[in-house]
Amino acid sequence: MAPLVRIFSKSCRQICRPWGACQAGWRSRSTHPATETSTDQGVVSFPPLQTFSEEESMMKEAVKKYAQERIAPFVSKMDENSAMDQEVLTSLFEQGLMGIEIEPEYNGTGSTFFSSILVIEELAKVDPSVAVLCDIQNTLINTLFSNLGTAAQKEHYLSRLSTDMVGSFCLSEAESGSDAFSLKTRAEKHKDYYIINGSKMWISNAEHAGVFLVMANVDPSAGYKGITCFIVDRDTEGLEIGKKENKLGLRSSSTCPLNFDNVKVPEKNILGQIGHGYKYAIGMLNEGRIGIAAQMLGLAQGCFDNTIPYTRQRKQFGQRIFDFQGMQHQIAHVATQIEAGRLLTYNAARLKEAGRPFIKEACMAKYFTAEVASLTTSKCIEWMGGVGFTKDYPIEKYYRDCKIGTIYEGTTNIQLSTMAKFIDKEYDH
Amino acid sequence: MSGRVLVGVKRVIDYAVKIRVKPDNSCVVTDGVKHSMNPFCEIAVEEAVKMKEKKLIKEVVVVSCGPQQVMETIRTALAMGADRGIHVEVTGKDYENLGPLQVSKIMAALAKKEEALLVILGKQAIDDDCNQTGQMTAALLDWPQGTFASELSMEGDKIKVVREIDGGLETVKINTPAVITADLRLNTPRYATLPNIMKAKKKKIANVKPADLGVDITSRLEVLRVDEPAQREAGVKVETVDDLMARLKEAGRI
């Protein structure tokens, strides 16, 4: 593993310290350590990955309750109408779920990345569409503004993003998905402003977004090194939001094409530095990946939780269907996969918070949980039998919703290739 | 008068959990079972916070009696908007035997110490369903009480309380300081929003022991046995009235 390689190559005297103790040194530098317990001998023991701080536990409980009472009643209707209910959107802001890591001075909750992950997981158990809205806002939009914004940009946007404004991240185009950096949207410089022309595709949250973070190229001759991130307000002239896609799943999350027709954007609306957009995109997507993993995880768990009670109730041949060995083995297998996905996700999140390398682990978490979600939802329909196939039960929705997990924010193939690159490097010395 | 409201909150087994009795019939299983704030206590906290938002009172102090775990319940109240908490530490056997008489003595002592204008409690706890603590607290303090409140309004230094009683609704006006117990329809408790959960971390929770308040918490009651309700048995259908009479006579009912 990468950290192990680093110790040896530094020829550190601490090689003789056991691996666990080395981890302790790093762990103490993390900003939010999980509560560590000491045994009577005064030895610090390492808590399981599913250990949360009091704050994280309270957040998880609060969101669980809120999701059950304020979102669950709307889920079916939102899916049918392919529309996010305004009340749900408003209550998400009211609960502080749209500005989890934004500081209180900008009206945010002032909490941590791991809290965001727990929130997304809890929301996804009830509705993965609502979870993705919350995920994009927190892990992509808010993070980009917080990390890269000038004082003026932060002042102007962060308090709106935590209070009532949704954001959209615009990278993909009709001709560039995985090959993101071959994007064609062009930004031409004039004096103190830019003119943006082009179009974007598959933009989530677009229906409700008040601000768009648009990746456009200011200098195609420089290739991807011309990609720059522009802040474009919704009401800017020339920005056209197309009709939302009619999707298989995540239907209440709006996904629209965008058209830029001579959209004028002032220079002060550049986020970060010119030509650094590609770096920002990669950086944010590495983190966003963990958010998607949390979404897929919640989806799988929510589907599973809705199915097991049925298997314990339903009787055939004089016994609960849960009691047939064939069923038990399948159920246990799926439960194991979900648990493994959870550990991958939580670990990736904790690594990121600890400031340690996490990209390979984030890819693993996203790739794995998307696969687990597919497996879980497919099996759950089978276990429910005929009723699983009807819209009267929530299971079929989870089945439709999960498929996008292997596609967006980095397809499974891209995740695997990225992981392979890291693995290759690990054996470099 | 301080404009201070004291709210008592109890940590109970969550309402959605299926209760099981220990095999030795000594008590209900609590280990590893989900606990939350008593729903009527949530309503009490909500009412107090609402009064503060309307600027009718100045401070909401929330109190809970029990072991370390009740801190969680106090924090939830703080996240709903209470200003500070008091954890009255009671553990082990004392906690198992803690009942309305002991709690009301503690609440009365604290009400005096904090110079409270009002003490608001839930009408009853969903675990023991005693419906006694509020009334006992008022008696110990010799304060007026407005119990089963479904509506509260301050009128100068008096309080108008609409009470839910068997016959309907009864409106009373009582002097302050007073004890109120909250009934179901008093309000709808708010969710602890995430920003408020964060803010609650900075709020203070004081730790006291019953002895510090001069309260003797020895119980006068001893629980002999706890049993689950009898399983409902199947009924019997009869064809004629004569059959019914015969069966009833047989069962010794008539």
From TrEMBL, chain A:
Record's GO cellular component, any one? mitochondrial matrix
User: Which leading EC class covers this enzyme?
Assistant: oxidoreductase
The Acyl-CoA dehydrogenase/oxidase C-terminal domain is annotated at 275-422
The pathway where this protein functions is:
Lipid metabolism; mitochondrial fatty acid beta-oxidation; Amino-acid degradation; L-isoleucine degradation
Highest taxon listed in the record's lineage: Eukaryota
Keyword Calcium attached: no
Q: What Enzyme Commission number(s) appear in the record?
A: 1.3.8.5
Q: Name one molecular function that GO assigns to this entry.
A: flavin adenine dinucleotide binding
Provide an example Pfam family for this protein. Acyl-CoA_dh_1
Where is this protein localized, as stated in its record?
Mitochondrion matrix
InterPro entries attached to this UniProt entry? Acyl-CoA_DH_CS (IPR006089), Acyl-CoA_Oxase/DH_mid-dom (IPR006091), Acyl-CoA_Oxase/DH_mid-dom_sf (IPR046373), AcylCo_DH-like_C (IPR036250), AcylCo_DH/oxidase_C (IPR009075), AcylCoA_DH/ox_N (IPR013786), AcylCoA_DH/ox_N_sf (IPR037069), AcylCoA_DH/oxidase_NM_dom_sf (IPR009100)
Q: Which UniProt keywords apply?
A: Acetylation, FAD, Fatty acid metabolism, Flavoprotein, Lipid metabolism, Mitochondrion, Oxidoreductase, Phosphoprotein, Transit peptide
GO biological process per UniProt: carboxylic acid catabolic process; fatty acid metabolic process
Every Acyl-CoA oxidase/dehydrogenase middle domain range:
168-263
The chemistry this enzyme catalyses reads: butanoyl-CoA + oxidized [electron-transfer flavoprotein] + H(+) = (2E)-butenoyl-CoA + reduced [electron-transfer flavoprotein]; 2-methylbutanoyl-CoA + oxidized [electron-transfer flavoprotein] + H(+) = (2E)-2-methylbut-2-enoyl-CoA + reduced [electron-transfer flavoprotein]; hexanoyl-CoA + oxidized [electron-transfer flavoprotein] + H(+) = (2E)-hexenoyl-CoA + reduced [electron-transfer flavoprotein]; (2R)-2-methylbutanoyl-CoA + oxidized [electron-transfer flavoprotein] + H(+) = ethylacryloyl-CoA + reduced [electron-transfer flavoprotein]
Is Mitochondrion among the key words of this record? Answer: yes
The Acyl-CoA dehydrogenase/oxidase N-terminal domain covers which part of the protein? 53-162
Listed cofactors:
FAD
- Tell me the first and last residues of the signal peptide: none
Which family is this sequence assigned to? Belongs to the acyl-CoA dehydrogenase family.
Q: How does it assemble?
A: Homotetramer.
* Official protein name in the record: Short/branched chain specific acyl-CoA dehydrogenase, mitochondrial
Question: What organism does the record attribute this protein to?
Answer: Notothenia coriiceps (black rockcod)
From TrEMBL, chain B:
Enumerate the SUPFAM superfamilies for this protein: Adenine nucleotide alpha hydrolases-like
GO terms under biological process? amino acid catabolic process; fatty acid beta-oxidation using acyl-CoA dehydrogenase
SMART domains, per database record: ETF
- Cite the InterPro entries for this sequence: ET-Flavoprotein_bsu_CS (IPR000049), ETF_a/b_N (IPR014730), ETF_b (IPR012255), ETF_beta_N (IPR033948), Rossmann-like_a/b/a_fold (IPR014729)
Q: Where is the Electron transfer flavoprotein alpha/beta-subunit N-terminal domain?
A: 25-217
**Where is the protein found, in the record's own terms?**
Mitochondrion matrix
Coiled-coil regions listed:
none
Predominant cellular place of this UniProt entry's protein: mitochondrion
Query: Which keywords accompany this UniProt record?
Result: Electron transport, Mitochondrion, Transport
Question: Which Pfam families does this chain map to?
Answer: ETF
Q: What GO molecular function annotations does the UniProt record carry, in alphabetical order?
A: electron transfer activity
Family membership: Belongs to the ETF beta-subunit/FixA family.
Assembly information from the UniProt record: Heterodimer composed of ETFA and ETFB. Identified in a complex that contains ETFA, ETFB and ETFRF1. Interacts with ACADM. Heterodimer of an alpha and a beta subunit.
Name of this protein: Electron transfer flavoprotein subunit beta
